[in-house]
UniProtKB/TrEMBL annotation:
Protein's name in the database: Alpha tocopherol transfer protein like
An example Gene Ontology CC term for this record: membrane
Region (Disordered) location: 1-45
CDD domains: SEC14
Organism per entry: Otus sunia
Length: 360
């Protein structure tokens, strides 16, 4: 979920302007020659040049909240690029400045933690093929058309997009729960392309109206652990608040089980409003909310976001599910959680279904 942990006290050593690992199939095996060898440069692929699109206010915000210094930005990206090429030469990641910058911002420019997040990002993709194989907007069109997930058209006062999730729009007999997770993941991927979102983060609004025990049972231990792992440690986005409304009693049982596995900072960003729209409006102003949630911005319209995401098909054509991990590392080794934590999570989540019945 993005930004936990202190900023790096001391960044790496200064990088010379000529020290660049080039992108392409040979990213981690070729470096640019010295400045005195211009002819050799002709054979090296060009990486897209990063151009900052942040406003002056957001540059200031990034400096204060993310420890991002514009004068050091490219040096920091190069440091992360060098670490990838040294420690994970077979990761298969893009090494473009703009792409690596997402991970540095999500971890407040702590090189080591940004590297771990990057590795986790690809490890999660490789270890859950049901979600990440053939992951592109056209493949999850039925989920988008159902209205299960969308993005409100207006930003909140902090400049954050609001992702609206409505589980009641899902009919389990139509497709498995993994299709919903695919749709949410692609939505986050699209949002994180924006530098503004990288700095400001996002807000989630989840409406659990009409969620029954049978539907909730699809969110079992395996799925719960996977989703928590991705959102906390495997995706470069700052989730600043999760607002839950219309939650049935059953949800409180689910949250009580999941909460111990959430980092404290993230757990404190969950707000359970029940049916109290006034409580919701204290976190998300009515002016940006649709009428369905007591807002003044008209009926909830999912068509604009659906069209935007479906028009972004080219952004998601690369299939990361077949990435080759370093031969001496497994997905389990790369993830932040240790074996003991994984076992504890398994043992605790096994009790989910009995507790769900009790809460229901």
């Amino acid at each position: 979920m993005g930004e936990e942990g202190p900023a790096l006290a001391g960044r790496g050593p200064e990088m010379s302007d000529s020290c660049y690992i080039m992108s392409g199939d040979s990213d981690c095996t070729r470096t640019s020659p010295s400045a005195g060898s211009p002819s050799d440069n002709e054979f090296l692929p060009d990486r897209p040049k990063y151009v900052c699109s942040l406003s002056p206010d957001l540059i200031t915000k990034a400096r204060e909240e993310l420890q991002e210094k514009p004068e050091w930005r490219l040096r920091d990206v190069q440091a992360l690029r060098d670490m990838v090429c040294k420690d994970y030469p077979s990761l298969g990641t893009s090494l473009d400045d703009a792409f690596l910058l997402r991970f540095l911002r999500a971890r407040k420019f702590d090189y080591d933690r940004a590297l771990q997040l990057l590795v986790n990002y690809y490890t999660c993709r490789r270890s859950w093929p049901e979600v990440f194989n053939n992951l592109k907007p056209s493949a999850i069109k039925p989920v988008l058309e159902s209205g299960f997930v969308t993005v409100l058209p207006r930003l909140d006062p902090e400049g954050r997009h609001v992702v609206c999730i409505r589980p009641d729009r899902w009919t389990p007999s139509n497709y498995p729960i993994t299709e919903n997770i695919r749709a949410i993941y692609l939505t986050l991927e699209k949002l994180i392309q924006s530098e503004e979102t990288q700095v400001n983060g996002i807000v989630i609004l989840a409406d659990y109206k009409g969620v029954s025990l049978s539907k909730a049972s699809h969110f079992g231990p395996f799925v719960a652990k996977k989703v928590i792992g991705i959102l906390q440690d495997g995706f470069p986005i700052r989730i600043k608040a999760v607002n839950i409304i219309n939650e049935p009693r059953i949800f409180k049982g689910i949250f009580a089980i999941i909460k111990p596995f959430l980092k404290e900072k993230i757990a404190n960003r969950f707000f359970l409003h029940g049916c109290d729209l006034n409580s919701l409006h204290q976190n998300i102003p009515p002016v940006i909310l649709p009428e369905e949630y007591g807002g003044t911005s008209g009926k909830l319209d999912i068509s604009a976001w659906n069209e935007l995401l479906l028009a972004s098909e080219e952004d998601f054509l690369h299939d990361f599910s077949q990435l080759v991990l370093p031969c001496d590392s497994s997905p389990h080794d790369m993830l932040v959680s240790g074996d003991a934590d994984e076992k504890q999570c398994d043992d605790s989540l096994r009790g989910m279904k009995p507790q769900l019945y009790y809460c229901y």
